[in-house]
Amino acid sequence: MTRHGPQRGSGETAEGFSRRDLFRIGASASAATLAATLPASAEERGAPADALGLLYDTTVCIGCKACVAACTTANNLEPDTELSGGIWQMPTDLNSQTKNIIQLYRSPDGAESSFMKRQCMQCVDPACASACPFNALSKGAYGIVEWEPTRCIGCRFCEISCPFDVPRFEWAKFNPRIVKCELCRHRLPQGLQPACTEVCPVSAVIFGKRADLLREAHRRIDANPGKYYQNRVYGEQDLGGTQVVYLSHVPFAKLGLPEVGTESRAHYGEKVHGVIYKGMVVPAIVYAGLAFIMRRRFNAHEEHARDEQSKTGREDQL
Ligand code: SF4
Ligand code: SF4
Ligand code: SF4
Predict the structure, then answer these.
(1) 9 within domain boundaries
(2) Residue nearest to atom 6 of ligand 2 (CA)
(3) Which of 14, 200, 247, 311 has its Cβ near the most Cβ atoms within 10 Å?
(4) Are residues 274 and 294 in the same domain?
């Protein structure tokens, strides 16, 4: 497929991959093989027929952030009040307390602006799952990308590999988690929709089957010629497709949605498996890095335990 991404910079290879891409690919490829769970080809990994998702329309959003507050409550997250001295919830980016954020794009001359809702895109072929050495992230029911705490070792390969910069690690926690939107899957068995779509006062974000959301998006495009950027639904094909899809009146790239073609990053990783594994050099480097990270986490744990012991007199299990 044609790759119609941004112009190649000095940090990119002849194939158009940046060094960051190659690092992500290396992590992704190593993980998949070492776990012996290399998934089927990307063509076989289309969205399931019952795939659920969100449709967000920038032309409807009023930036009230009701969805941000509702997401925090529904997911039992501590409000991020750092910017306001502990008073107001004011997250500036996704973080370990924030699975959903509304940001504002404004052009330098102020002529163009848009709100942007960011959360996990529920990729059809998720790079994060492909990168995870222990399948802690995987596609679950309705195509939702789920995180399983008992499998996660905190290596953060998912963070590095995500093309949308979504998963966040709980650095401040003793037993850290990877935090990302899981489409409020805990609410679905109770017949509830995601908290963000439930509270949105203008239905700028709606929930449903991916197929129905795409139909609705195309209905809006057809009904409003010239209103939407490129008459296109972002996520229908981009990066192998996503279950959270977007309509926008400004270029998607300005909202932080990467224009890097229709192939998934997990798919790129598979293409270079043969090269990466030659001589097992890259897996060795990746695992050396992993050992380093684990050692650092253990040292931090030890230091924290010593601090606690000196403060409380209680001895902690290391
Ligand atoms: S947006 Fe990132 S975290 Fe979410 S499914 Fe895709 S690769 Fe994984
Ligand atoms: S689906 Fe749930 S977790 Fe995801 S952004 Fe909406 S409220 Fe937050
Ligand atoms: S609740 Fe709806 S209108 Fe308000 S910021 Fe969120 S998506 Fe936009």
Answers:
(1) no
(2) 196
(3) 247
(4) no
Q: Give yes or no for residue 64 CB within 6 A of ligand 3.
A: yes
- The Cα–Cα gap between 212 and 222 comes to 15
Q: How far apart are the first and last CA of the chain?
A: 51
Q: Within this chain, do residues 99 and 207 fall inside the same structural domain, yes or no?
A: yes
The one-letter amino acid code at 246 reads Y
Residue 130, both tokens: 């492909």
Structure-block tokens of residue 8:
């190649």
Residue 89 included in any domain: yes
pTM of this structure: 0.76
- Whether residue 272 is found in the same domain as residue 291: no
Range of the domain at 296: 282-312
Ligand in nearest proximity to the CA of 114: 3
Query: pLDDT tens digits for the chain (318 residues)?
Result: 333 332 333 333 333 333 333 334 333 433 333 333 444 444 456 899 999 999 999 999 999 999 999 999 999 999 999 999 999 999 999 999 999 999 999 999 999 999 999 999 999 999 999 999 999 999 999 999 999 999 999 999 999 999 999 999 999 888 899 999 999 999 999 999 999 999 999 999 999 999 999 999 999 999 999 999 999 999 999 999 999 999 999 999 999 999 999 998 786 544 444 444 444 555 555 555 655 555 565 566 556 556 655 665 544 433
Which one-letter DSSP state was computed for residue 35? T
For ligand 1, atom 6: residue with the closest CA: 123
Q: Is the CB of 94 under 6 A from ligand 2?
A: no
State the distance from the centre of ligand 2 to the C-alpha of 182, rounded, in angstroms: 7
What SS3 state is found at 29? helix
Atom 3 (ligand 3) nearest CA = 61
Same domain, 159 and 299: no
155, 287: one domain: no
- Dist. CA 197 → ligand 3 center (Å): 8
Ligand number, closest to the Cα atom of 199: 3
Distance between CA atoms of 26 and 161, rounded to whole angstroms? 9
Domains: count for the chain? 2
| Same domain as 255, residue 296 | no
Do 160 and 93 lie in one domain? The reply is: yes
- Compute, in angstroms, the gap from residue 157 CA to the centroid of ligand 1: 12
